[in-house]
Description:
Blueprint: H1 15-24, H2 31-41, H3 55-60, E1 71-77, E2 83-89, E3 95-102, E4 107-110, E5 114-117, E6 130-134, H4 137-150, E7 159-162, H5 172-182, E8 195-199, H6 203-211, E9 217-221, H7 227-233, H8 242-256, E10 260-266, H9 274-285, E11 289-295, H10 309-319, E12 326-328
Parallel strand pairs: 4-7, 7-8, 8-9, 9-10, 10-11, 11-12
Antiparallel strand pairs: 1-2, 2-3, 3-4, 5-6
Helix pairs in contact: 1-2, 4-5, 6-8, 9-10
Amino acid sequence: xxxxxxxxxxxxxxxxxxxxxxxxxxxxxxxxxxxxxxxxxxxxxxxxxxxxxxxxxxxxxxxxxxxxxxxxxxxxxxxxxxxxxxxxxxxxxxxxxxxxxxxxxxxxxxxxxxxxxxxxxxxxxxxxxxxxxxxxxxxxxxxxxxxxxxxxxxxxxxxxxxxxxxxxxxxxxxxxxxxxxxxxxxxxxxxxxxxxxxxxxxxxxxxxxxxxxxxxxxxxxxxxxxxxxxxxxxxxxxxxxxxxxxxxxxxxxxxxxxxxxxxxxxxxxxxxxxxxxxxxxxxxxxxxxxxxxxxxxxxxxxxxxxxxxxxxxxxxxxxxxxxxxxxxxxxxxxxxxxxxxxxxxxxxxx
Length: 350
């Protein structure tokens, strides 16, 4: 007998896993397809309206799976309506943040994989929190559902980036399972090219990401071109230095058939000089890659500054002739503390 108190959360169940729950409860496995379609394709969040199910099954569905979503504690939007930061309340009282970003080309959901982060990158607000706990697969998938519901599912081909709170490859079991769930054809049906996983450089996890056989995008939070500086900015570099990291990135690109994104936060007077640009271009040429320059988003209490627009442009222009591809990220959400490196309890002024 399956009891309600021990029922797993629906959003953490793949279609085969949900089918097994139904058969264990004495129902036909194809009921899983019906529930998947009601939830993911028709947008129902409670069993009462699932009219293709018998009344008895609707009333007892909670013993097979729970359809609970995190509490929306608050939503902060930018003045132009392009970016929204969601603060979600989780079981046990923890809170996590995720972000939706709309441009002319696409809607992107930035997902968190942990509450806090243990890696302590010196310029990042999340790193100052430390690690509170790992997110479960259902808590990762639920972020997409919450943001999709908020935006009315107007964009069928949205993108997913694991670039929110936490290091995805330090919670790889839940992250990989959430990717599998989001790719379910009867569910969100996400294509691999619409999903990107960002890592600060956990080399063994990069190899295991390749092993799952889903060619998602890989982004490396590089931010420095020498081990001495990267040890300071991204301390995990002391365990897996640049040569080891770049070899893993090259292997991932070759195995997945995807270009690896080298994310590079520009810190005024720290990593934005001509020598830095020269080394960055050489690193990029050594693997299938593209460079994404990120002008620093300020965090209260940290000593770093954003370079001037002219300095950013000069750095980018020095790369263009030598690097495979270069983009400069347009900051979205800085006014609501939702930009890259700013997640972690910072809230906009009322």
